[in-house]
Amino acid sequence: MTSVQRRTLLNGMVAGATLLTLPTIASADTFPAPLPGKAAPITAAEREARIEQARRLMRAHGIRALIVEPGSSLIYFTGIQWWRSERVTAAVIPLEGDVVIVTPFFEAPSIRQTLSIPAEIRTWNEDENPMTLIAGALRDRGAASGPVAIEETVRYFIVDGLKKALPSVSVLSGAPVVRGCRMHKSAAEIALMKRATDITIASYRYVIPRVKPGMTPRQVGEMMDAATIALGGTPEFTLILTGEAAAYPHGSRAPQVVRENDIVLMDCGCTVEGYQSDVSRTFVPGKATDRQRQVWNQVRQGQRIAFAAAKNGAPAGSVDDAVRRYYESLGYGPGYRLPGLSHRTGHGIGLDGHEPVNLVHGEMTKLEPGMCFSDEPGLYIPGEFGVRLEDCFHMTDTGPVWFSEPPDSIDHPA
């Protein structure tokens, strides 16, 4: 699920959730100061290196060109920050020659503002067919007969239009190229994700002690968003669940309010230079019951087991399997059944909040240095409550390293 889809889902389904809303800030000194230091944006040189890596992968797979629409992959390769509409903007990344950007004539000045690699811009007017320009770019770059790889989120009407404009072309999935680049983060990307995570953790440390009985999820979410902005991040999502609603990972339509001695589950993230954090915390305003404490500790142990199972060369799905074996030994499940863990143990993360691949049963992709994942093996008990602790990690030559250290106690959740 993309971050846009996730925001849409939560906005429609979760009563009281706050997503990318503008908080009401009483005064600047109400919230913490920005984190020290500055985030270093991705350089043009790094984006050019990404293009060259894509070409190496294209060569290995016999691909002549890659087509990418606006979204995180277009940002990743070109720096262009744009949106999708019925008016086609796309990048043609050829095996040889300059990248070609196809865009409406009147949008070209705006496109140039964020383009950060050498590229030729070809424009089309409202009475022209943009697919003719894409076909022409492929011909000029020696890729008219293909194979041409299509980034996996490109909309069908673009693929269909290309086939009509260039009947000789053969197309295939661009996943081996795009995933082959984006799944392995550079030091610069990891630094941005670490800063985003630091901002989210600092926001939790500000907000959690201020969550009081009687507050609504919206009020808690607005406070979290305001703290995130004050600390230097851009809020991406803020999901607040209380009591029984916490037993449903993406929430409930039932009205919610914070109650003393009851569960509060927060799942929040922000972006820094487009790179995301994703951190969940579960706590109790007041005194946790023995039952709440027991389940919280079981989830914390599940996080530890997942982290320990994340070894270079291990299939990504083996991490999920290790957690489920532990939960099943406690009487949860089996598998994805409730009460238990009804979702995957984790997902990839980077420019998108959810990226390939997932820590899910059956996923055979091997873990390698540079891969980044969430670790969120929650436990959900319908009719009672749920607990989710989520921290992200990245793989190094010696194994996993946390972006944020998980909490050790329900009494000290941040």
The run of helices and strands is HHEHEEHEHEHEHHHEEEEHHEEEEEEE
Fraction of residues in helix: 25-40%
Structural class by helix and strand composition: alpha+beta
Question: How would you state the average pLDDT, rounded?
Answer: 93
Q: Taking strands numbered 1, 2, ... along the chain, how are they ordered across the largest sheet?
A: 4-3-2-1-5-6
Fourth-level CATH superfamily of the largest domain = Creatinase/methionine aminopeptidase superfamily
Write down the CATH class of the largest domain.
Alpha Beta
Could you give the count of β-strands? 17
- Strand share of the residues? 15-25%
As for the CATH topology of the largest domain, it is: Creatine Amidinohydrolase
Supply the number of structural domains: 2
* Most strands sheet: 6 strands, mixed
The number of distinct helices, counting runs of at least 4 residues, comes to 11
Describe the structure.
The protein folds into 2 domains: 3-30 and 185-402, Creatine Amidinohydrolase, CATH 3.90.230; 44-182, Creatine Amidinohydrolase, Chain A, domain 1 (3-Layer(aba) Sandwich). Helix 8 (187-207) packs across helix 9 (217-231). The protein is of the alpha+beta class. Helix content is 34%, strand content 19%. The radius of gyration is 23 Å and the shape is elongated. It is built from 11 helices and 17 strands. Residues 1-29 have low confidence and may be disordered. The strands form 5 sheets. A 6-stranded mixed beta sheet has the order 4-3-2-1-5-6, sandwiched between helices.
